[in-house]
Design a protein that fits this description.
Helix content is 61%, strand content 6%. It is an alpha+beta fold.
Length: 651
């Protein structure tokens, strides 16, 4: 009896003691606080997602309410236009019967369908374009306004049909139009009031979500403050005497060395901290410099300059893996010497499947002498480099990338260098991802703007691609030979290629009846057409002003090309009549490429000129229309130009 009564209490006491002791530990207290914080935030996220899922159809409602406004405006405006030009003969009446009356019937049907769906509290799939019917709920204000708008619409609709008369095959359009204009304000106001009521309802629902999240954030902030207090009183304060020497480092004095006073764990921690402090001082300076780069060229230059304190750097290049995974494409490079690899070149790595899970150190590149022409290490050796190290990186969207450092002395890279690169790979990847994204965004913007201009003149075929390639080839040739070598580098060539397609962006501001006129323009139309360089320059200047405000410069070369590609070397061009080298070099290059492609391409109004005839015209216009140096570079590049011409010929 005694044993049976006391046995259950024997194991309970140790469990309780262990639980109490565990709850007093900092890991338990921090863990429980973090768990509570997680549950609080997870609940907030779950609730927000639930509410946002309920709100996902609100945009459809607002869109349809907006359609009501647009439709009502369209009906009233069309009626007003009809009254201004009332038909005076049977032929004109039949025309308006087909156009004005047809549009009126469609607008009435659309307004009827939207209003009936709103009143039924559902949005049919054929109205929203969704795969299912959307069911809606309204607040009292929206219900009241919907009822008023529906009543006003039915009154307005009945009045229209009354004025149209009984014979809808021969309706009295002028009477109906007069009625629509006279009573249109009532419908316009009702449609606008309904849209405002719906918008106010949606904003009220979102305000509730914001209020809930603000409350949750307040609770989370309080919990975080409690957690901070817990850590301070249970961990930081007991260690204050031990870490007092770290205060200068904590205030930002990176590089400060704390005296090592003992050989125990605290001493070991101090020694490790001193090493960390020294490395942080170097890495913070390095990261700050790299992140100053607004372009990939800037970032690679900063990397090359700052890394020289840690390892030898005579050349650095960024490679991305090709789509088929067999080659590596040189995206960008920075070189201290006069010779550089060709960007966008495709290279192979030695071996079937080289291990790229860790940095790879090549102490002597001469061992790859005589390898195939596209072997990357052999190519680096041909360009005068003796050793290299490869830093594998995971780029944006998990794309594989290589950052390769090369030096002109053999055996330049040690195990410590490789370890350093492994440690900073994350910071480098983040910085380069940022700049690659920005440059890709610029390229996408350029392509979109170029397509915008091209869409106004759809008979250009591959003109933009060909002339951009021609311009890049000529720029490369001028950078290697001739008097403009000091002005042109790989970045300049790249910008010429990217922005050449935007030369006619200003045509978006030219009226279609001028831009698409099949015959010769008269004098007034010609003057209007000649405004397109100024229009393009102004558009791009506004774009440049926007990005300048963010600390970037992107469209400088684009402005030069768009604004000056119709200037002539002798000063007889437009819009400013610039002469000689007052015309930006980029515009002089694009002018030659643009005219050559226009001459050698077939158009609806002309046949393609033979290449020899087009070259003859370039020679004839050298010094008048074109820069003679650019024409000469174009002719020196003719084999490459013809390869592009044959590949992308406009048939």
């Amino acid at each position: 009896m005694h044993n049976s009564e006391t046995a259950p209490t024997i194991p309970a006491q140790p469990v309780k003691d262990r639980l109490t002791a565990w709850l007093k530990t900092i890991r338990a207290q921090v863990g429980l606080a973090l768990a509570a914080l997680f549950l609080l935030l997870a609940g907030s996220v779950a609730y927000t997602l639930y509410e946002l899922d309920l709100r996902k159809h609100d945009y459809e409602i607002l869109n349809l309410a907006g359609q009501l406004r647009v439709t009502s405006h369209a009906m009233v405006n069309q009626a007003g236009n009809y009254l201004k030009d009332t038909p005076t003969d049977y032929e004109a009446y039949n025309r308006d019967l087909r156009l004005f009356y047809g549009d009126l019937q469609r607008n009435i049907a659309l307004y009827d369908k939207i209003i009936s769906n709103f009143e039924a509290r559902r949005l049919d799939a054929d109205l929203t374009g969704k795969h299912e019917t959307i069911y809606c709920t309204w607040d009292e204000r929206s219900k009241s306004q919907l009822s008023r708008t529906a009543d006003i619409w039915r009154t307005y609709r009945a009045g229209m049909f009354k004025q149209l008369g009984d014979d809808l095959a021969q309706p009295r359009l002028n009477y109906a139009a007069a009625y629509m204009v006279t009573n249109g304000k009532m419908l316009l106001d009702a449609s606008n009031d309904l849209a405002i009521a719906f918008q106010t309802m949606m904003e009220g629902k979102l305000a509730l979500i914001r209020l809930f999240n603000q409350i949750i954030l307040g609770l989370a902030a309080g919990l975080m403050l409690g957690l901070v207090a817990l850590i301070y009183f249970n961990l930081v304060r007991p260690l204050r005497q031990t870490v007092s020497g770290f205060a200068r480092v904590a205030r930002g004095d990176f590089g400060h060395q704390v005296p090592v006073q003992t050989g125990n764990e605290i001493g070991q921690m101090t020694r490790a901290f001193n090493q960390l402090s020294e490395r942080l001082h170097a890495l913070f300076r390095l990261t700050d410099r790299i992140n100053q780069g607004n372009t990939l060229d800037d970032s690679l230059r900063f990397i090359a300059e700052e890394f020289r304190d840690f390892l030898p750097v005579d050349w650095v290049g960024l490679f991305f893996q090709s789509a088929d995974g067999t080659r590596w494409v040189l995206e960008r490079q920075h070189d201290t010497g006069p010779r550089t690899l060709r960007e966008a070149g495709h290279f192979m790595l030695p071996g079937d499947k080289p291990d790229l899970s860790q940095p790879l150190n090549i102490a002597d590149l001469s061992q790859y002498r005589g390898a195939r022409a596209d072997d990357l290490f052999a190519t680096l050796h041909r360009y005068g480099f003796a050793s290299a190290t490869l830093l594998p990186m995971a780029g944006a969207a998990n794309s594989q990338a290589l950052l390769i450092f090369a030096a002109r002395q053999p055996g330049s890279y040690t195990t410590e260098h490789v370890e350093f690169l492994s440690n900073v790979a994350g910071q480098i990847t983040h910085s380069l991802d940022k700049t690659v994204f920005l440059e890709n965004l610029v390229v996408a913007t350029v392509q979109g703007l170029a397509k915008l201009a091209e869409s106004r003149d759809p008979e250009t075929g591959d003109h933009l691609l060909r002339m951009a390639l021609y311009a890049a080839i000529v720029a490369e040739e001028l950078g290697e030979n001739g008097e403009y070598r000091e002005q042109i580098n790989t970045a300049y060539v790249r910008e010429v290629f990217q922005f050449a397609p935007m030369h006619d962006i200003g045509k978006v501001g030219i009226a279609d009846h001028i831009l698409l006129k099949p015959g010769r323009l008269d004098e007034e139309q010609r003057r209007e057409m000649e405004r397109h360089p100024s229009i393009g320059g102004e558009v791009l200047r506004r774009c440049e002003a926007q990005v300048n405000g963010l600390g970037y410069s992107i469209f400088r070369v684009a402005i030069e090309i768009a604004e000056c590609h119709h200037e002539k070397f002798d000063g007889s061009g437009y819009p400013k009549g610039l002469q000689g080298e007052a015309i930006p070099l980029s515009a002089r290059i694009v002018a030659v490429a643009d005219v050559f492609d226009a001459l050698t391409s077939k158009r609806p109004y002309k046949e393609a000129w033979p290449v020899e005839r087009a070259l003859g015209l370039l020679d004839e216009e050298a010094g008048r229309h074109f820069d003679p140096e650019v024409v000469a570079a174009f002719k020196r590049s003719l084999p490459r130009v013809m390869a592009i011409y044959d590949q992308h010929k406009h048939v």
